[in-house]
Target: AIG1-type G domain-containing protein
Amino acid sequence: MANSKRDVHVVFLGPTGCGKSRLCNFLLEDDKAFKVNASFQSVTKGIESKWKSINTNNELIAFKFIDTQGLADTTMTNAEVVSTVAAAVKQDIQYVNYFVIILRAGRLTDENRNALEDIIKAFKLSDDERKKHAFLLLSHCECSNQQLRDQYEKECLADRTLKKLLIVRSNRAINFQCIGLPQPSEVNEWMYEGIMKWMNVQRKGLLEYLSKPIEGIRPTNDGFFENICTIL
Ligand SMILES: Nc1nc2c(ncn2[C@@H]2O[C@H](COP(=O)(O)OP(=O)(O)OP(=O)(O)O)[C@@H](O)[C@H]2O)c(=O)[nH]1
Ligand SMILES: [Mg+2]
Model:
């Protein structure tokens, strides 16, 4: 039995098709929770959210995962998407514990860079205090070995946009992770076992990070939420 209970609200943001809905479904352990599709236009519209409770270290954590509409889409400007998403998030929850920013590993296109700059600006994520609420994930890394994942991390730390989000300790980005979440039905049968195993390792690592209360945060304007979250 858990001794205490805590709500953790996590908002997933990123360019269209980067894998936000796929990641939410994976964390929810429900492939049908949110619609996932390879499409040029944003599949998710506005926001969608779902709860999942997880018992860790004598604490029951009720996660609210908030999937959002992708930026850099062909039908709406980034400014329109950001304001639609921000308004919907504010209506849905009173505070955000973590903003998970997802990007497909590989070269950063101008469109995706602009989308990230707009996200960082809209939610003030380059601010030293707010950065503690940001987590950068590179998706589509299921075939990348440790050396390549380390190289991606270095490239992100050197990138003029991505480095604004990252918290660095001993030359490592602590709020960063590479993930690979192909649909199990599409995985090459020779690689299936290994990829499935790695997926479970990733789920555990990410949920552990998101479960940790954020330390050193100044109380927010009303003090009601103490030091674990931020007001939008
Ligand atoms: N191989 C691989 N495919 C992935 C990964 N993440 C997502 N995909 C696939 O990429 C496509 C787009 O994923 P979605 O989760 O729908 O992307 P999204 O960010 O929610 O897109 P929008 O809702 O349009 O903004 C789907 O076909 C997913 O199965 C990954 O890490 N590896
Ligand atoms: Mg989606």
Q: What stands out?
A: Confidence is low (pLDDT under 50) at residues 219-228. The chain has one domain: 4-211. The CA atoms of residues 100 and 135 lie 5 Å apart.
